[in-house]
Amino acid sequence: SRSLARRMDGLALSDIVQIKQRAAQLAGEGRRIVDLSIGEPDFDTPHHIRDAAASAMASGATHYTATAGTPALRAAIARKLARDNRRTAAPGEIIVGVGAKQIIANALLATVEAGDEVIIPAPFWSNYVDMVRFAGGTPVIVPCAMANGFLMTPDQLEAAVTPRTRWLMLNSPSNPTGACYTLDRLRALAHILERHPHVRVMEDAIYERLIYPGHTYHSILDASTALSDRTLWISGVSKAFAMTGWRIGYGVGPKPLIDAMAVVSAQTTSHPCSIAQAAAVAALDGCQDVIDQFRSAFERRRAIVCDGLSALPGIDLIAPAGAFYLFAGVSELLATMTGRGIENDRGLADYFLESAGVALVPGSSFGAPGHVRLSFAAADDALRHAVDRITAAVRALA
Ligand code: PLP
């Protein structure tokens, strides 16, 4: 007899969790380990945000709130959308969730059933694939080449759409590649989508505020207002304000979809923590300079890893346009390693962890074998040390 439901088949904790466990084990044995597997800012949440949470707690914001989020937070999100995204949204078109992650999961649970397809460009945030399966749907993975900047082309989109397509997932700037769609590229995708009215767009813009000079964030709605009644736009405070632990994300979309997602929340978590919601209001309404401070630190760190690793033979890099990940091509490096027991990106990530003490994540975990992902959300010194150790480890095999 089964002990678990069939919907659990094939679902597991991510590879990253296993890598972190091994890194912690090695550190416990006294090794110096630089953990670049993680996807979270190493900064503390700014003081004014923590203060707002403390006063919310002291003044009694300790009760259930509206399932879709407090009116105060939804109003703050509406102001943020007007300010940063030149977009108007009514409170009924906004829902707050337990991180952006819950928004994505609830949208899929509310709309996807057996036989439904969801187009996921690769490299992808691996949770997309698992969440689609959990919802009973079929992920349709579209590999996007480094030569195209890891971005999906209009022809690829056209070829992937079928009558069963429910969603296109778009993640810009991307985890794991840092790639960001330009307005022109979004126009070209929108042009295809306009001809397929049954396809909705889920835009995961969690890294929208972490964009480097020379690049600009755009939503697909900047390219085509015709898609507004079938686009769910998702962001949150985790990455922009160093608030990963507070678990506040939000979705903006057509009211019938938002209402259905609120029903899923009502039957599972209810709303996110009342105190965290008050903190998120302070983040969105407060001084936005903190984002610039974080971004300039990440920009400096991006240079450390890009400059350091681009000197290595056999490694292909594109400097990321946004987010805090470097997705390096290692196929050429692997080709020089045949006969040394390192067969693929997983073997290479193991080698870097065991022999160089640097934890990073194989590209296979993101649907793109032949690459590794390195997070540069770590201290400058740690990154310099990691670059030195990786360089030495690569030279040792040459
Ligand atoms: N979307 C992407 C692409 C992410 O990388 C992450 C976090 O790693 C999330 C969503 C989840 O963010 P949150 O902490 O708001 O749930």
From TrEMBL:
GO molecular function: L-aspartate:2-oxoglutarate aminotransferase activity; pyridoxal phosphate binding
Descriptive protein name: Aminotransferase
Protein EC: 2.6.1.-
Family (UniProt): Belongs to the class-I pyridoxal-phosphate-dependent aminotransferase family.
UniProt source species: Sphingopyxis lindanitolerans
Organism lineage: Bacteria, Pseudomonadati, Pseudomonadota, Alphaproteobacteria, Sphingomonadales
Cofactor(s) of this protein: pyridoxal 5'-phosphate
Catalytic activity: L-aspartate + 2-oxoglutarate = oxaloacetate + L-glutamate
PANTHER family documented for this protein: ASPARTATE AMINOTRANSFERASE
One GO-annotated biological process of the protein: amino acid metabolic process
Residue stretches making up the Aminotransferase class I/classII large domain: 33-390
Domain of life, per lineage: Bacteria
InterPro entries: Aminotransferase_I/II_large, AspAT/PAT-like, NHTrfase_class1_PyrdxlP-BS, PyrdxlP-dep_Trfase, PyrdxlP-dep_Trfase_major, PyrdxlP-dep_Trfase_small
Entry keywords, A to Z: Aminotransferase, Pyridoxal phosphate, Transferase
Subunit field text: Homodimer.
